[in-house]
Amino acid sequence: MDVFIAAVSGYVLGSIPFGLIASKLRGGVDLRDYGSGKTGFTNSLRVLGFKHSLPVFLGDFAKGLAAALLPLLYTDDPWARAAGGLAAVIGHVWPVFAGFRGGRGVLTGGAVLIALSPLATLAVLPISGLILYRWRFMSLMSICAAALAGVSFAVFAALDLHPWAFMVAAVFGGALIIILHHDNIGRLRAGTERKVGQRIETSPAGVP
Known about the structure:
Elements: H1 2-14, H2 18-27, H3 41-48, H4 50-69, H5 78-93, H6 106-116, H7 118-122, H8 125-135, H9 138-158, H10 164-180, H11 182-190
Helix pairs in contact: 1-4, 1-5, 2-3, 2-4, 3-4, 4-5, 4-6, 5-6, 5-10, 6-10, 8-9, 9-10
């Protein structure tokens, strides 16, 4: 029952579409009509700019943390925390409050991993940061980070530094994120993927 409660609450939290809310408040438009068509921080940054996408960053990050930490209020079962975190990523991707059209779950997933195992997540950051610095593709960094997280969490679980439940959440969440980047992978191979800092060619009305 604890796992079920964590999963449901995690999904509900993940379904809060902060990117869509921000775009509606800013220009009265649907963020999904522009850029990549996603509601996550990366697309909001390209469409709305940093100032107006900062709440999206904070909101998407906070819901991942909350989903993985709230189960601690009523259980010490690591599977409940893993289920809550993974459900938050699923909710972000297929949000019930936004017609099941959301983002790719990278930021929310990263927050979940930090909440579950800070050290295992920290081990992924240097390589991920180097990839972003060298090639400036947020999608490439996200794909590599998702794969590396699975490896890191498996190593930490094998060393008995955290429960295997956390590894399961990292592997399944990472696999989902990689699959959801299939279109980015195609653009990376074609050389047409946007780099960090590139705004979309056409902005919504009312958004500079």
